[in-house]
Known about the structure:
The protein is of the alpha/beta class. The protein has helices spanning 15-28, 43-47, 58-61, 94-103, 112-116, 135-143, 157-174, 194-206, 219-226, 240-255, and strands spanning 2-7, 33-37, 73-75, 87-89, 124-128, 146-151, 181-190, 215-216. It has one domain (2-255): Rossmann fold. The protein has an 8-stranded mixed beta sheet, with helices on both faces. β7, α8 (194-206) and β8 (215-216) form a beta-alpha-beta unit. α1 (15-28) crosses α10 (240-255). Magnesium ion binds at residues 15-16, 39, 43, 128.
Amino acid sequence: MASIAVVNQKGGVGKTTVVLGLASAAAHRGIETLVVDIDPQGNATTGLGVFEPTRSIDSVLIEERPGGINSVVETTGWTDDSGRRPLVAASSPALAAREPQLASDPLGAQDRLSVAMQGCSVPLVLVDCPPSLGLLTINALFAVDAVLVVTEPGAWAVDGVGRMLQTIDRIRTRRPDGGPEVSGIAVNRLGRTRDGRYWHEQLDSAYPEKCLPPVHLRAAVSEAAAQSRPIHSLGSRAGAAEAAGEFDVLLDILLRPVTADAPPTTESLPEGDI
Ligand SMILES: Nc1ncnc2c1ncn2[C@@H]1O[C@H](COP(=O)(O)OP(=O)(O)OP(=O)(O)O)[C@@H](O)[C@H]1O
Ligand SMILES: [Mg+2]
């Protein structure tokens, strides 16, 4: 099993979009995928076409429940036409109230998700995190093998990513297995502006080993999420194939064994239509 948390404490940078793009790429390739939505906003849940979940991840975080995640997994609303339909452990607004409650556990509640995921046999687990460094994100960092940091190529992105990497380092010193690995930094919503290029270069030079091929700004990407459809199913919609190709590249890198060469820092694929 590969488990990957998609993180950034900054809001609106594209964490959920990247989770959905990767889930779409995995579905297209026939890889069974579980999306764990631990963001109380529930955008990944709705993006996957689940509007009124009957169960939620919140119920397995209430107490230590080994393997509990299996009891809340459900199939998503994505159709099967574009590959293997992903699974979801849905979000709930109750997660927002759960976070302060977890913080009051005198023994520490940072490993509730890790305990709940014990024995999970789905080959790929993607965890969509809220825009904060609170206990929900910390739970994800204790539960997964690897982390993908998503950022926009904008002002202070380098500082924001640096703060996230420091937090991950602190988790690594506390986890007995030394995890999670940092799989890379996905630079999302890269446009054709000089400003975008400048901040992308700043990120690339600050983290040359970690910056992955970017995901460009494309209307098709936000349309897919708004329509609760996988980007790979948008067919001939302008920019959809190019966007799908970028998520394919990211998935390839994420699924590569950790011992492989450093990720490419390429300018990536042709820009196509945005
Ligand atoms: N590559 C892209 N091209 C076009 N629009 C994008 C792209 N990536 C993200 N967006 C749009 O930007 C907005 C924010 O993206 P998203 O919700 O994925 O961010 P987030 O980091 O998950 O936000 P939050 O921190 O609130 O959870 C959404 O409207 C999404 O459709
Ligand atoms: Mg989100």
